[in-house]
């Protein structure tokens, strides 16, 4: 049943996203493609729809990859320090190379995010947790330290106020010519599907993966690199968006299980759908103004996160 309704819901939300905004576009204008409607559609609405959808797909997929590597359902970039490390990497690149473009900032965010994920996994592997809920708690503490370092670094370089503005998830500035970096998520999705079976085996543990012929360290490194690319691209393009990679894989697993070769399309489509819901809600709550999607996704994702924790504790 979900396989039928989810694509239909996604298509419906795509249509709503194209029609929703400060400038009204009727369905008739969209069909006839008047000059004003065409300009608004191609310059703003369509790039925004593509960016929202690909961001949701990328964050959901990198969340499920991390969960299989760490073997914990409550892990994603926002609860493992990766998102905060990407922020720190961008700030360092801005201070060292003020004229650097998006590519240089993305590379710095990628390196910091990858290193932070490696450290987090090393911490989790060294400490034997009896309660799975403690793993994201450690991750949040670890991320809090990295976030504090980022804010202190921004304070020392007098960019604290601007940092708080442009690192908050926001799609309102997405226009033609300023979103194309988001297309880097497409090869990440392809590689994630190619390695889906190996990531599933990683979720069984290192010993089982090795016995089944999977190189645990190499496959984990590939997964962490895909996560780092996705996080760095989304932070550069739209800012920090938490909880999508946490709640979507868990909700999909309730219906389809944990075999990524079978569930990855549903995870990707569910991530795009959830982020479209948050984006449309943010545009309608105080219309014609917008609530940044970083706030709406945090509210929705935070509630779902608490529900998942309570459900697991019972």
TrEMBL record:
The keyword Transferase does not apply. GO terms for biological process: siderophore-iron import into cell. It is a multi-pass membrane protein. Pfam families: FecCD (PF01032). One of its GO terms (molecular function) is transmembrane transporter activity. The keyword Transmembrane helix applies. The chain crosses the membrane at residues 48-70, 106-124, 133-155, 175-196, 208-229, 235-257, 264-286, 292-310. Belongs to the binding-protein-dependent transport system permease family. FecCD subfamily. This is Iron compound ABC uptake transporter permease protein PiuC. It comes from Halomonas citrativorans.
């Amino acid at each position: 049943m979900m396989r039928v309704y989810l694509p239909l819901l996604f298509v419906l939300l795509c249509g709503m996203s194209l029609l929703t905004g400060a400038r009204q576009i009727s369905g008739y204008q969209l069909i006839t493609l008047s000059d004003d409607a065409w300009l608004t559609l191609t310059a703003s609405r369509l790039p925004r729809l593509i960016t929202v959808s690909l961001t949701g797909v990328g964050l959901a997929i990198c969340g499920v990859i991390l969960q299989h590597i760490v073997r914990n359902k409550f892990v994603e970039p926002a609860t493992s320090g990766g998102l905060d490390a990407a922020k720190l990497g961008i700030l360092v690149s801005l201070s060292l190379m003020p004229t650097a473009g998006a590519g240089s900032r993305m590379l710095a965010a990628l390196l910091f995010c990858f290193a932070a994920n490696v450290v987090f996994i090393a911490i989790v592997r060294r400490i034997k947790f009896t309660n799975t809920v403690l793993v994201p708690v450690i991750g949040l503490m670890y991320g809090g330290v990295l976030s504090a370092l980022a804010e202190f670094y921004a304070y020392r370089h007098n960019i604290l106020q601007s940092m708080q503005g442009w690192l908050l998830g926001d799609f309102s500035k997405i226009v033609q010519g300023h979103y194309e970096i988001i297309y880097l998520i497409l090869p990440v999705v392809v590689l994630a599907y190619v390695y889906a079976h190996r990531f599933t085996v990683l979720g069984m543990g290192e010993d089982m993966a090795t016995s089944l012929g999977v190189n645990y360290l190499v496959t984990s490194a590939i997964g962490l690199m895909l996560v780092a690319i996705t996080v760095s691209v989304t932070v550069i393009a739209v800012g920090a968006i938490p909880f999508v990679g946490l709640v979507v894989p868990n909700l999909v697993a309730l219906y389809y299980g944990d075999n990524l070769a079978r569930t990855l399309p549903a995870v990707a489509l569910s991530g795009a759908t959830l982020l479209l819901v948050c984006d449309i809600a943010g545009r309608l709550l105080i219309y014609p103004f917008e609530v940044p999607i970083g706030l709406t996704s945090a509210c929705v994702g935070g509630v779902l996160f608490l529900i998942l924790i309570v459900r697991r504790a019972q």
